[in-house]
Structure formats: C-alpha cells, structure tokens
Amino acid sequence: MVTIGLDMMGGDFAPAEAAKGVAAFLDENKEAVHLVLIGDEQQIRDQLNQYHLPADKFSIVHASQVIGMHEHPTKALKEKQQSSIAIGFHLLATGKTNAFISAGNTGAMMVGALFSIKAIEGVLRPTIGAYMPREDGSLGLLLDVGLNSDCKPENLHQFAILGSLYAEHVLKIANPRVGLINLGEEEGKGNLLAQAAYPLLKENHDLNFKGNMEGRDILINKADVLVCDGFTGNVVLKLAESIYDIVKRRNIEDEHFERFNFETYGGVPVLGVAQPVIIGHGISHALAFKNMINIACRMNATDLTGKIRERFAAAGSIV
Amino acid sequence: MVTIGLDMMGGDFAPAEAAKGVAAFLDENKEAVHLVLIGDEQQIRDQLNQYHLPADKFSIVHASQVIGMHEHPTKALKEKQQSSIAIGFHLLATGKTNAFISAGNTGAMMVGALFSIKAIEGVLRPTIGAYMPREDGSLGLLLDVGLNSDCKPENLHQFAILGSLYAEHVLKIANPRVGLINLGEEEGKGNLLAQAAYPLLKENHDLNFKGNMEGRDILINKADVLVCDGFTGNVVLKLAESIYDIVKRRNIEDEHFERFNFETYGGVPVLGVAQPVIIGHGISHALAFKNMINIACRMNATDLTGKIRERFAAAGSIV
Asked: Which CATH number covers residue A189?
C-alpha cells in the first residue's frame, strides 16, 4: 500500500481545488493507494462532503497552521511546526507517508525537501525539473529550474543522471537523450560551467549524451533531458510560462500552446532526495492536484528513489 | 557626412538581399549618408544594376575573400585579410567609415569588434544587446546576449549603463528603466552574480533601477533595459526566436507574434566599442539590412559612442 501525503492548504485555490483533485483521483484510481490529507480538518471535511469518497482511501491529519505564499521559507518552516507543510515533511521523514505533495510556498517546500528529508547518498545537490512541451506532443525535462542557482560541473552531471532516471522510469522514455543547455552547438562552446560539464557528460557512458543544446532547441524534440544551472533554468521556465499568458491574452486558440499551461503538468518533482516530493504551482487547480498525485504514484510504483540510490551506489562517487 | 560600411557578402542571402536593402534605404533617405559597400565588386555591381541608385550615395570597396558562416572566427579573421569582414573593420579602425554592419559570421564580427577596434576607455567588456518585443508594442533591450558568457558584477553594471544610453538616445526612451534578470523578485534573491550586481545597480543614481525581473517579465513592459550574463541572455534570445518559428509552423496569424521575427529588427548593436558596429542575423533579408543601416545612422546622428565616452569619463572608473 502506497501512502501519499497531500498538503490541502497549499496553492491559491486551496482547499477547494485540492479536494476536487482528490475526488477526481479517487474516482479514477482503484489501486492500492491511500491519501493522507493534511490541513484544517473542518475545512477539508466541508469540502470533501460534496463528493462521495470511499472512506478507506483517505485519512485526514489536522494541521492548525498554514505557511502563506509570501512568508520567508526557512523562518516559517521553523516557527510554524503545526503548518501543513511542516507536518507533511514530518510524516514523510518518519515513514508515515511514501511521498509528499504541496502547491504551497515553493521556498518552504524546497527548504523542507533539502533539510527535512535526506539527500540520497552520493547526490551532492538534489534538483527540481520542469516539463517542456514540444510540438510533436512529447515532453522534455529541463533541470535545474531554481533549486540550485549556482552550480558546479559535477552538479550538472548529476542532474543529467537524475533526469535520465526520471525520464526512463516515470516518463517511460527508453534510453533518454541528454542535452547540455549552451550558447552554441559545438563542443568547447559555453561559459566556464558548461565547458567543464561537457566532458563529464560525454565520458559517462551510462548517459545517452547528445551534446550542446541552444535556446532554440528547448522546445523541439532534440533531447529528453536538458540540464543547466538553476538560474538559467528558472529564467527559461518562467519565460516559457509567460508565453502561455500572452497566447491567452491574445485569444489564440492552439492545441500546442495549450500545452504551455504548465499547471496541467501538476508540479515539478524534487529529484535526489530519499522520498518523492512534488512541488506544485501556486495556481494549481483540480487537474494539477490529480496529476501530482498520479506522478507521486508512478514515482513510487517504479521505485524511482530506489533506482537512483542503486545508480549512485554502483558508481561509487559520481562527480 | 556619415559614412557607413556594409558587408555585402554576409548572411545567407547575400549579396542579393543586401543590395535590395541598400536600394530601399537610399530610396527613403535623402540625408547626408554615404554607404561603403564591401565585397566582390562584380557581384555587387550585378546586383545594384537592377536599381537606379544615385551614384554619389555609395562606393564599392572590393573584397576578394568571404568568411563562411561556419569558419572558426579568430582563425578566419587572421587568415582572410581580404575578406569583407576584415576589410570592413580595417576601414572602421582607420576612420574611413563611421560604422560597420555585417550579417556574416557572428563570431568573426564579435572578434573583430573586440580586437580590431578599441573599447571605450573605462568599459571593461563591450556587450551586445537584442530587442525583446512586448505586447504593448514597445521594445525592451536585453543584454548581454552572448558576447560575455561569464560575467562579473561590474560587467552587468556597465551593461546597464551602456543599455540605458542606447535606450535613451537611439530608442528615444526618456529615463529608461533598468531591470536585473533574476530568479525571484525580492532583493537578495539570485545566484552569486545577480546578488552582487544588485547593489551596484541600486547605488548608481544615474540609473533608473527597478530591481529584479523574472523570466515572466522579459516580454512585458516592466523595464526598458534588462541585464544578465551573456549565457543566460543567449539562451533567452534563442528561445524567444524559436517561438516565432513555432507560431509560423502552426499557421498562427497574430500581430504581436509577428514582432518575434527578430530579423525585422535588423541586428544587434555592439555597445562599448569606439565606433558603431552592428551584427546582423544570418537570415537577414532586405528589410533587416535597411533597418541596420538606419540604426547605424541613428547611432551616429545621436553620437552615441561620444555620449558613452563622456559618461565613462565623468564617472572615473565605473565598476
């Protein structure tokens, strides 16, 4: 039985949309999944009452506090021990749940992922990725998108390994192709970081490394896993998100640009930590919550963290 | 009399489109501008023959060699002394022309701009900018977009000064607003570079600094001048360029996304060097060539390099 913790108080439309997402998930899933819904018990019950949910599929853990979207992450996590995020990480760290999902304060989720639960042995820095939609209907995984604003070459190398394992096991892409985000295609191009990361990626024969990828390659299907420092990745992600806003404002109806609605992907996985953690977008609606629960299920079903652990153990120290 | 050098052999459609652009420019401009057209004389004459151009408005300087789009920049510039780019920089460096424009090998143009002509005293690193179209019809200037892949905080500070002077004098934006590309809005956010650049920008009261700008702010009108390292800027520019390609492939007709056709802007100015240099896009058509000549005219008419020189001299050493 997989037990998944969900912060019901996170996101701009919580708990209503979280509850709706839970109902949609339980409606579709007859698998052996148990949801632990964390937040204000009364509010959660009020919301869930409108759905007819199987009582054995979920339980509620009361949290009397909420970390606001604009609170200082470290300070809030420390001072609000009874918040849904703090309790969510506590349940995860003590083995009461097998995954934790929140669309709440992103900074608090990052701090919690880094400090409440452990990084997998050998992983220098956990990372977060985001999906990049391509015209052919496929998805690329860009990482890091903001957890590590300054990176060393060995971090980028590890992001490639973590992203490849995620792409293989969760996205079901066989032998995923890895690209290094760079300002030119040729080997030897780049800033000092990219130049130094290139040989590490090239020499690791467990990776299907396809070389440098330019900005123009991000939205086409040239690589499945795109690695860069978290500063560049964050700017790219938010720029791509803003394209969707522009398309909407201009009343453009287009199937492909619909896929720039990052909300539908349901959040970005934190990779390299001992348990699955998924950080949702603040504007998450029911679909996003449902999708996040599904991703957490797949990360568990495929034992992604176990596979990451094995890979890093087998390689000794991967740098 | 302003004399502008133009590489007729640069770009994918040279010399035909360059010649067409020259004709369009001369057709519209009755000002005191003289064009120096550099390249294979016979080819240039064959192209120009189809237009009825005033003979006193241009002259041709023969160049027997061409630097190909994929040649190694430094090597090619050194070995092909009779190439249109090498001759163009020679004419500029010796005062025979007041500006130089090419849509040829970008790397060779960068190397030429950095080494054939001098940086203005006090400018640590010249930079290249690119226009970012915004929904309200305005243009932002993003810099650096690839000349400086690794930057120090003082470089970003100088890019802000150079970009502000360009925005004020060439784009005619009074008191241009400056933004620092970053992964969060709040002061203190960012990688080490952005964190260290922030106070330099904030404390320079000649700049109209508006704080950090996220990826989502690049395509909206929050700042006129957006500064970042050339690695991030290059990835952003090429990603934005690729949006236009996607829009075209999907047959979306939209006035705003038409403005993502970066070709129409006619190239990016190199700022901080002693003479105006404009680097065109390889796919430049006639419109791009005409626009580049216009930008060079405006840079001369407003004495932009003189104004940059004054600002850097007045400030002693700006870091």
From this structure: 3.40.718.10
Per-residue confidence band for A30, with pLDDT thresholds at 50, 70 and 90: confident
| Residue A236 touches partner B, C-beta closer than 8 Å | yes
Q: Are A120 and A305 in contact (CB under 8 A)?
A: yes
| Domain match, A96 and A201 both | no
DSSP state of B158: H
- pTM of the full predicted structure? 0.92
Residues B253 and B141 in one domain: yes
- Reference A162, options A3, A5, A315, A265; nearest CA is A315
Q: With an 8 Å Cβ cutoff, are B220 and A239 in contact?
A: no
Q: Please indicate if any CB of chain A lies within 8 Å of the CB of B75.
A: no
ipTM value:
0.91
Which one-letter amino acid corresponds to residue B268? V
Which segments in chain B show pLDDT lower than 70?
A: 316-319
Q: Do B149 and A240 touch (CB under 8 A)?
A: no
| Cα B115–Cα A199–Cα A159 angle in degrees, nearest 5 | 110
Tell me, yes or no, if B235 comes closer than 8 A to chain A by beta carbon.
yes
Domain range for B152 is 129-261
Number of domains in chain A: 2
| Alpha-carbon torsion, ordered A84, A88, A89, A91, to 10 deg | 140
